[in-house]
Amino acid sequence: MLSLSSRLVEKAVEQFATLPGIGRKTALRFVLQMLRRDKEDVETFLEAIRQLKESIRECARCHNISDGERCDICSDPKRDDTTICVVENIQDVISIESTGQFKGVYHVLGGVISPMDGVGPSDLHIATLLQRVEAPATREVIFALGATIEGDTTAYYIYKKFPRREELVITTLAKGIAVGNDLEYIDELTLGRSIVNRIRFTL
Question: I need a surface site. Which of 141, 147, 149, 175 has the fewest CB within 10 A?
Answer without folding.
Answer: 175
